[in-house]
C-alpha cells in the first residue's frame, strides 16, 4: 500500500471496513470492568466481616492466610543427609495461624490493591475499545488511554515486588518465620513481562500520536 | 523574521468575480475544503488541486500562492 493510499484511508473513516471484533471485545471489557468493581466490593466486605470476627485472644485464633512466600521444608530428623528437603515459592496457604493483622495485610494486597489496578486497566481498555468500535482510531484520546495503560502496568510491575516483600515481612513479623519444619521468607519476583508490555504500550502510544499528527495534516491537505 | 505561504484565493476570486459555490462546482472541491484554503487553515495543497484551481480561475500558480513575511 502506498503512503497516498494509506493516508486516504486514514482521512476517510467511512471507507474503513466495519469493525468485526471490537464491539464484542468492548462488551467483554465492560463486563470485566463491572466484574472487577463487584469483586472489589465483595472482597472489601469479606475482609471486613471475616477480619473483624477474628478473636482478640491469640490462642483462640485459627486464621487461614494465603500469600506469596518462599518456603523451605526442613527435615524432622537432624541427622538426615539433607536438612532442607524442599524449597518452594509462590502463593502458599497457611492454615490455623494466629494472625489478625496478617489477614488484613494479605487480603488487602491480594484483593484491594490488585483490584484497583485491574479496575483502572479495564477502564482504559473499555474506553479504548469503545472508540475503536466507532472507528475513532487515530485520536488523541486513544493515545492517552494507551499511554495510561502502559504507565499503569509499568507502575504495577515496579511497585508490586516491593509491596509483596513489605507485606510478606509484615505478615511474618506477626505469624513468625518458623513453623515446625517450615521456614518462611518474603517472596520477591520482578514481573519482567509487565515491564516489557508496558514498554511496548508506551511505544505504541507514541506511534499513535505521530499517526494522529499525520492524519491531521492529511485532513488539512486540499 | 518568519516566513509563511499565503493562498490568495480570495483576491483572485474577486478579480474573476467568481463565487465560492461556482468555483466549488467547477473544480470539484467541497465548499468546506475551499473555505479551509481561503482562511489559510490548510497545511498543504496537492498539485492536482492547484492545477484545477488555475484552470478554473484562468491564472498561474504564482497568482494563487504568495510568500509572506511577518
Structural class of the helix and strand makeup of chain A? alpha+beta
Oligomer: heterodimer
Could you tell me the strand content of chain B as a percent range? 5-15%
Shape of chain A: elongated
End-to-end distance of chain B: 6 Å
Total discrete domains of chain B: 1
Strands of chain A, total number: 4
Overall CATH architecture of chain B: Orthogonal Bundle
Please work out how many helical segments of chain A DSSP would assign.
Answer: 5
Radius of gyration of chain B: 12 Å
Number of helices of chain B: 5
- Helical coverage of chain A, percent range: 55-70%
Number of strands of chain B: 2
Q: Would you identify the regions of chain A where 5 or more consecutive residues have pLDDT less than 50?
A: 1-14
Give a topology summary:
The complex is a heterodimer of chains A (222) and B (70).
Chain A (H helix, E strand, L loop, with lengths): L2 H9 L10 H31 L10 E12 L9 E14 L3 H33 L6 H36 L2 E2 L2 E5 L5 H28 L3
Antiparallel strand pairs in A: 1-2, 1-4, 3-4
Chain B lengths: L2 E5 L1 H8 L3 H8 L3 H8 L8 H11 L3 H4 E5 L1
Antiparallel strand pairs in B: 1-2
Summarize the structure in short.
The complex is a heterodimer of chains A (222) and B (70). Chain A is α+β, with helices and mostly antiparallel strands.
List its salient traits.
heterodimer; A: 222 residues; alpha+beta; four-stranded antiparallel β-sheet; 62% helix; elongated; disordered N terminus; B: 70 residues; 434 Repressor (Amino-terminal Domain); two-stranded antiparallel ribbon; globular
Structural features, described:
The complex is a heterodimer of chains A (about 220) and B (about 70). Chain A is α+β, with helices and mostly antiparallel strands. Chain A has 5 helices and 4 strands. Chain A has helices spanning about 5-10, 20-50, 100-135, 140-175, 190-220; strands spanning about 65-75, 85-95, 180, 180-185. A 4-stranded antiparallel β-sheet of chain A has the order 2-1-4-3. With about 70 residues, chain B is of the alpha+beta class. Chain B has a single domain (about 5-70), classed as Orthogonal Bundle (434 Repressor (Amino-terminal Domain)), CATH 1.10.260. Chain B has helices at about 10-15, 20-25, 30-40, 45-55, 60-65, and strands at about 5, 65-70. The chains are: A alpha+beta (about 220), B alpha+beta (about 70). The interface of A and B includes residues 216, 221 and 222 of A. Chain B: InterPro entries: Cro/C1-type_HTH, Lambda_DNA-bd_dom_sf.
